[in-house]
Amino acid sequence: MQQKNKLKLVLAGTGEFSKNIFESLINNENFEVLALVSQPNNSVDRNKNPVKTPVALLAEKYNIPLFQPIKIKEIKDKLITLNYDFFITAAFGQFIPNSVLEIAKIASINVHGSLLEKYRGAAPIQHTLLNNEKETGISLIYMIDRMDAGDIIGTARCEILEQDTALEIFDKLANLTIKNLPNWLIQLSQNKIKAIKQDESKATLAPKIKNEDAEIFLSQTKEEALSKIKAFNDQPGAFIIINNKRLKIFRASLTKIKTPLSLDFSNGKLYLVEYQFEGKKKVKHEI
């Protein structure tokens, strides 16, 4: 769908998921990206130098103005001067007050990694995998002052395959967004979409993951352990403590494979495909 005048965008996100979506909008002739907003560069490398977020690197690559506030309300006055049509967030990780949401001329909207009303919150992909869902998707919603509770502008679905981990789902959902978001934005600008209210009675939560949530115990079933391995493949990494040493597990199989390492859970063995002992290099076996 072609847009007569370029729609002006401000995009807020932090990681690879956001970066991939935003780069597609930067390279789309229907849009002009006026600024990018990212969380501060909180991580450091081995030499204790700050590591730029993927969205910060994207801003550098395309010479786009970048804001990295601790709280987004700090840059409210700067945002007002930009005179943009849409404010779009994707895995940004900050609460956005109404004073910022109201700046956009058309709408402030969020790309959420689940089929709302299910899995509102910071970790929808992880909770989707923990619950062994067979399908997931993205929801584009209006942002309001309640978490992921705004009216739904559009949804797109994808199948969850047996071998999919959080890494694969992040990629699938980014690609779904890249495919659908441009048309949704153009249709919104032309008042061609009627948003749907969420049914509060169907809402479920996907709270932020803590490191301890990723621990696996041999008292669990092998299926429960595998769900954790899939869900936490990206961050923080599923792990089990063996002989006071941490063993990180990135991929595993319920069916027997040629691997020297398996774990005995309450109902049988789980065969490790990709893993890393504390202080050692990562090991990967072919299935």
From TrEMBL:
The keyword Transferase applies. Keywords: Protein biosynthesis, Transferase. The keyword Transferase applies. Residues 10-182 form the Formyl transferase N-terminal domain. Its EC number is 2.1.2.9. It comes from the Bacteria. Pfam families: Formyl_trans_C, Formyl_trans_N. Residues 208-259 form the Formyl transferase C-terminal domain. GO terms for molecular function: methionyl-tRNA formyltransferase activity. Belongs to the Fmt family. NCBIfam families: fmt (TIGR00460). This is methionyl-tRNA formyltransferase. It comes from Metamycoplasma hyosynoviae. The lineage of its organism: Bacteria, Bacillati, Mycoplasmatota, Mycoplasmoidales, Metamycoplasmataceae.
